[in-house]
């Protein structure tokens, strides 16, 4: 799935992906929404009737690897895995509204904005708005 991926380790629900020189660039978390607390489920607006829903979060911590298509390859590969092997009906994320680079990547992979989540994430001492985005089969 991932071209140039030199290693993949699964630790519980975490999947560490190494790129080229064995630097860990991305961390993927996947979780079924049935495991989300009521507050998060309510904020997202989903119920058990919405099918199998996975959430994912990732980052590329090394700026030298930004704008090289790695994120798009990673997200599209994870989507393929979740749909083909986990039978996901939807995949959701909640990136910060100001993260335009990530939002462009997710849009390229087929995600659409569902709703703005005001003051959703505490980041560097300040609550930030996030978008709930969704990839729906």
Automatic annotation (TrEMBL):
GO terms for molecular function: acyltransferase activity. It holds the Pfam family Acetyltransf_8. Its EC number is 2.3.1.-. PROSITE patterns: GNAT. Keywords: Acyltransferase, Antibiotic resistance, Transferase. InterPro entries: Acyl_CoA_acyltransferase, GNAT_dom. Residues 63-134 form the N-acetyltransferase domain. This is GNAT family N-acetyltransferase. It comes from Paenibacillus terreus. The lineage of its organism: Bacteria, Bacillati, Bacillota, Bacilli, Bacillales.
């Amino acid at each position: 799935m991932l071209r140039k991926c030199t290693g993949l380790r699964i630790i519980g629900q975490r999947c560490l992906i190494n790129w080229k020189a064995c630097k860990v660039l991305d961390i993927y978390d996947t979780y079924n929404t049935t495991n989300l607390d009521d507050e998060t489920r309510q904020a997202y607006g989903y119920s058990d009737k919405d099918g199998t829903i996975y959430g994912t979060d990732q980052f590329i911590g090394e700026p030298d690897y930004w704008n090289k298509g790695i994120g798009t390859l990673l997200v599209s590969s994870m989507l393929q895995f979740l749909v083909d092997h986990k039978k996901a009906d939807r995949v959701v994320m909640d990136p910060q509204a100001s993260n335009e680079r990530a939002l462009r990547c997710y849009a390229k992979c087929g995600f659409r904005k569902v709703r703005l989540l005001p003051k959703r994430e505490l980041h560097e001492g300040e609550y930030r708005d996030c978008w709930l985005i969704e990839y729906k089969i």
